[in-house]
Amino acid sequence: MTQNAANRASDIGSPQELARLLDSCGYLTDDGLATAAYLALRMRRPLFLEGEAGVGKTALAKSLAQVLDTPLIRLQCYEGLDAAQALYDWDFPRQLLHLRTAEAAGVTDVARLESELYDRRFLIARPLLRALETSTAQRPSVLLVDEVDRADDEFEAFLLEVLSDFTISIPELGTVRAAEPPVVVLTSNRTREVHDALKRRCLYHWLEHPSYEREVAIIRRRLPQADRRLAGQVARAAQRLRAEDLLKPPGVAESLDWTEALVALGARDLDPATAAVTLGAVLKYREDQQRVTARGLDALLNGG
Amino acid sequence: MRSVTETIVGFARTVRAAGVGADPERVQTMVRALDHLDVLDPSDVYWAGRLTLCSDPADLPRYDRCFAAYFSGQTARTVRRPPPVTVTRTLALPAAPREDGEDGERADPRTATSSAAEVLRHRDVARLGAAERAEVNRLIALLEAGAERRRSRRLAPAPSGRLDPHRTVREVLRHGGEVSRLRHRAHRTRPRRVVLLVDVSGSMAPYADALLRFAHAAVRSGGRTTEAFSAGTRLTRLTRELRHRDPDTAMAAVSQAIPDWSGGTRLGEELKEFLDRFGQRGLARGAIVVIASDGWERGDASLLGAQMARLRRLAHRVVWANPHKARPGYQPLTAGMTAALPHVDHFVAGHSLAALEELAQILKAGDARA
């Protein structure tokens, strides 16, 4: 994406312009999401995204990083995630090695040795620290805190601390402050109510499944090899599947997978025969597949 | 013409009155967001407000209503606030003849000898007088209804267990490279999630209040890992309402939140909605799920059976509390009960204080029976 390399966060003047830039990276937004991302960029307030699985929460962060031409720093949350994995950790083996070397060399200045041991070079930056350290006014880094609802509430507490003033205090070293706050995107699948204090620090956006026209456009943008007809058929079927009573209605991610599978098989048309062999790309539960097959793939593809 | 800030503050007040948690800090954020956008563009104003004032999908329809009303020039009072509902619910009159009523209390020689509290513990909550009811409610509020603990993925320092390299090496560094002692760490334990689904349909009306109070006690003792819902003809999440410390305030909030008190039952559909919207995503995974209902299913019971099977696959344990179970000669013959029972780990009554204590015990006791 060389034509985007010149984009500075401060040069993007309106939501529409950001939407255009995201578009050029293959991510189609609507008014709401473009405004949300634009405000996150200008106000440097974390963006809290919720919505069904597969509506493009994670993809937005990736595309934002692409637009700003910075690496995406991703923190995948899980239960038990702690400071040593999210913020920073000391590189103990190297510290020990340094100590041994100093001993062998006969260093006697204990105070100096101690300050050397807790030097920045022995510190391993984990995603949150890395995001603060690499973020500059010219090039803010993009931090994705993915599925924050999977982490436990202890983690929320220190995430809150980092996100409210973008500093991390390391007792042995001092406080690390971001030269420029990073652009932060948090995603949640709502398996758990995230604490209100955390949400209050953020802009909140609920992502819906896209409309038929937008879904066709997304498929065409992401998979140029699929022609308009096929993309239209897949999008139509996906919309019908969402209205159906399924355990896991397909998201955009699934329609993309499905189209990709069809393209890989060289299918030019989504007909009952090709749909039957590729159904696993879009429906991930046996019950759902049975249900749809029982109702007839013909009905799914041609309505009725 | 009013200033932008004034307009926004007025709008935020409308939104707040509609039940969206638009606190002053959020309003400030909205004003600042508008600095970056076009104040005269309705779409920009809409999104600036929606992104900053809302924090839950449930807020969005309310916000949309307020936005339409406020900016179309109507006055702020278009918001419909549900009328305050009295907390004390009228009880269905005892169906049984008064043979054990009125005089029975004081005249019965047996009850005279045992303590009044002990008698009250075993009385069916549907047949209490106002004073007794207040006492039982007070005792329910005191119930310790926390859940059993499960092993967490989080490690914490412990006297024994697996080696903790970080703390050990830190210690070594402190002692100039000498290994003086090994440090250990072990998995912590956390309370297992409890999810309560309370049937508030007509046939459960005499018991719903007590069961919701039990849910309040569970939310209070279980902390953030406890969730409660009401089911009738609509599924309502009550966790937020039940967070109030004071039981009566919580019950007032709950009775405002539930739109379908004493309506019909469509338990199968409700359970399906619960699993679709919350359960499968993670709320029911590994949780203890308590369903408080009499199983009077108006819809097709096979749906309830299928959903119970699905719930059983997700949950750690499924507990069913049916107040009618305590009646002499009760047989689980209703279509709903027969469909559900094969997928239930514990089948209890929950009709009296003692029965609720038993339920609390089941939540805490872990795999005593399973």
TrEMBL record, chain A:
Superkingdom in the source lineage: Bacteria
CDD domains linked: AAA
Domain AAA+ ATPase: 43-217
GO molecular-function terms, A-Z: ATP binding; ATP hydrolysis activity
InterPro entries the record matches: AAA+_ATPase, ATPase_dyneun-rel_AAA, CbbQ/NirQ/NorQ/GpvN, P-loop_NTPase
Pfam families documented for this protein: AAA_5
SUPFAM superfamilies for this protein: P-loop containing nucleoside triphosphate hydrolases (SSF52540)
PANTHER family: MAGNESIUM-CHELATASE SUBUNIT CHLD, MOXR FAMILY PROTEIN
Protein name stated in the entry: MoxR-like ATPase
Organism, scientific name: Thermomonospora echinospora
TrEMBL record, chain B:
Entry-linked CDD domains: vWFA
Region listing for Disordered, in residue ranges: 94-115
Domain of life: Bacteria
Protein name in UniProt: VWFA domain-containing protein
